[in-house]
Amino acid sequence: MKKLLMAAAVACVLLVTPHFLRSYGIYLLSAWLVYIIATMGLNLTVGYAGQKSLGHAAFFGIGAYTVAILMKAGISFWLGLPAAAAICFAVGLILGFPALRVQTIYLAFATLGFNTAVWLVMRNEEWLTGGTFGINNIARPQLFGLSLESNLAYYHFVLVVAVLLGALLWGLLRSPWGKAFTALRDNPIRAESLGVDIRSYTLLSFAIGAAYAGVAGALFASLVQFIEPAPFTVLASIMMYLMVVVGGPGYFFGPVLGAAVGVILPEWLRFAQAWYLCVFGAAVVVLMIWLPDGLLSIPDRIRARRQSREASAARAAAARAQVPPRASGAEA
Fold first, then answer.
1. How far apart are CA 322 and CA 127, in angstroms?
2. Which among 260, 162, 207 is positioned nearest to 62, based on CA atoms?
């Protein structure tokens, strides 16, 4: 009941708040939702399946450029969106093969190299991507004859997509597939001994995560209405990874908090003017030192400490009960 009330309260806030914001505030909330979608996919790959990926911004960019190129060719956004997801799914499936042979830091470097290669294609293949000049005048779609051109209408559209994709991921994680992903993260050898096809689930973790990034990239392209290679660099991948880690890898709502830290918090810190990036970086470093499992690990840490104190008190009480009473002076 508490979870339902909390979900209803959050939904009311997300629906009502934009009506009291100016255009830039609505844009910022829309960007936050886009990055929530992207990091939901990365959370599946990193937090649930336990794979190290620093190439997520490449899929984000592939999705954005797919929609932009197709729309410039006269193809509808509603065909470009599933095309972006499908292309990213296929590329993510291919990228998953290095994860079958290398792990941890070596896999991170492999995905980092993939991100760099994709970014170089975006930057240098001007016939396709426009190079550093990018692609502009990317239109926002219409839905059942209703224009999504205004920032408020597009915000509500992105919110609906984020909720639908979140519900889809929620169902996936509570299915046998989700349990297999978690088993792959915790102990691949034990998972394989229990009959989990770790090869297939490793590939799927990359492919599904990439598809989510592709959808987010498509939404991002129509949100900003102009794309060029800068938002899809390795630094952007590191920032997305940071969002997952800060929010809490392996926590379903981790991307919500992590994306807020990566997208909204820097705007709040602009009061520091030229120092705001230093303040933001210092805040993240302190957070990683004190909460290495992310913000959503706080309730678990509090619960673990309380259980530890209760267990210590129970052991002390049991020890006192086992101590025999001292002999009286008369008996002596």
1. 83
2. 207
Amino acid found at 242: L
**Angular region, 79: left φ>0, alpha ψ -120 to 50, beta rest:** alpha
Are 280 and 265 in contact by the 8 Å Cβ rule? The answer is yes
E strands along 96-208, which residues?
A: 135-136, 142-143, 146-147
Q: Among 236, 218, 238, 224, which Cα is nearest to 62's? A: 218
18/33 Cα distance (integer angstroms): 13
> What is this structure's pTM?
0.90
* Residue 243, CA atoms < 13 Å, CB-side half-sphere: 35
- Read off the pLDDT of each residue in 4-31 and give the average, rounded to a whole number: 83
Among candidate residues 57, 34, 2, the one with its CA nearest the CA of residue 255: 34
Task: Tell me the three state secondary structure of residue 109.
Answer: helix
Asked if the model's pLDDT at residue 327 lies above 70, the reply is no
Q: Cα(289)–Cα(300) distance, rounded to whole angstroms?
A: 17
Rounded Cα distance, 49 and 287, in Å: 24
Residue of 293, 209, 284 lying closest to 254 (CA atoms): 293
What is the identity of the amino acid at 81?
L
> How far is Cα 97 from Cα 79, in angstroms, rounded to an integer?
28
Does residue 297 or residue 76 have the better pLDDT? 76
What 3-state class would DSSP assign to 295? Answer: helix
